[in-house]
Structures are given as structure tokens and as C-alpha cells.
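A note on notation is needed here, since sequence and fold are reported together in a single record. The reader may check this reading against the record printed directly beneath this paragraph.
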Amino acid sequence: MYLYLSLALQAYCIYHCYTNKNPYYWILIIFFIPYIGSLVYLFMNVIQKRDVEMVQDGLTAVINPGKKITDLEKKLRFSDTFENRSNLADAYLEAGMYGDAISEYKTCLEGTFQHDFYVISKLAEAYYFSSDFDNAMRCAERIKDHSKFKKSEAAFLYALALEKQGKISEAEHYLSQFDAPFSRYRERLELAKFYIRTTQKEKAKELLNEMIIESEGMSKPSYRENKALITKARELLASEVGS
């Protein structure tokens, strides 16, 4: 078994080295130092390289946030595909350029991809954040029977839009779907705020207490990830509903 694994690993690394035009000496290392040579190659040329590229992309986005959009615009001009256009629309949405995002998403929905769940859900987001709640709701209603809708960002924003339209019971129905232990803290915090806004303070108190109790059993990485939300839950419990 070990021999087959080593041979398979060598074959993959040699193929990767050849197709990516990496220095020829790597092939000698992989061939003459079985297994260890392959592992070193993977770390130096596959895993580590990918991590470095991810960090570089992140730094570029912080230092020059417009570069990502510029690059995607050029890519779309070079090749007008559904994927390139939807990626550009995503970048516009991320940058808060909601009008541009809406325009690109609507173009994506022409023809073959007119019922694409992902694009319609992102279009709903773009409409919501541009304060066009009517169109946000229309988009959400096109996909609300889809299996992926229940726990999606579109469903969350649909619930908030319903509340803004005065449809309180419907809003609660969709928001409450996010109430699951040890998960979805952002959405559950918003549900607690919804309960406070609609004078259901006992429900808010119960939910906030659940979130705080859960935080006490979290792993350190999980707590760090959700610390701001848990802190806000504590503040709400103390200031709005009482502990």
C-alpha cells in the first residue's frame, strides 16, 4: 500500500512539475528521493505557493481595492462569459457599487441563465443594499421555493425587507429559520433585535441567553470569530431586555 501511495504521489508531482514548467531539478529530487522528495515539492510548489498567492491577493485588495474590479472588467471585455460577468457583478456588490452590480446581474439573467439561483439571490442583495426593497423582495420570491433558499443571505435580507413592509409574521417566519444552536450568530442576533423591535422581549431574552451560554463552550478560534457578536448580545441583554 505504501509503495502504491508513494508511486502515485511521485507521478502527480512529476506531472505537476512538468505542466507548470518548474525547474527540472525537482523531477530528479522527486524521482531519486521517493515520498520525501514528493512531500517537499508539494509544500514548496503547491501548498505554500497557493497560500502566498492568497495572501498577496488579500494585500492587493486592501492596498488597491479598485484593481480587482479593473482586472475583472478587462477580463470581461476580453471574454464575455456568464462566469466573467457574474464575477464582476460580485466585485461591484462587494465594493458597494450597487447600481453597477444590478446592471451586470440583470444581464447575466438574460437567456440561458435566466433562472440561475446564485445570480438572482445576489441581485436580491444588491437591490436590498440600494434600499430598493420592493425589487429585493421580487427577486427573493422568484427563488424562495428553491432548496438552497432557506438559509441563504437572500432569505435573511428577504425577512428584513418583509419587516420594513410591515409583514411582521412573515418576517419572523424567515428569520426564525436561522435559529440553530452554535451557528448563524449574525442572523440570530438580528432575530433578537427583531424580537425587541416587535416587543417580544421574552423571546429576545431567551435567545440572547442561549447565545451567551453557547459562547462559554466555544473553542478559542470559534470564540474569536464570533466575539463581536457575542459582545453585542451581552450588551443587548443588559440594556434592552435585562438579564
Summary: Residues 120 and 139 are 6 Å apart (CA to CA).
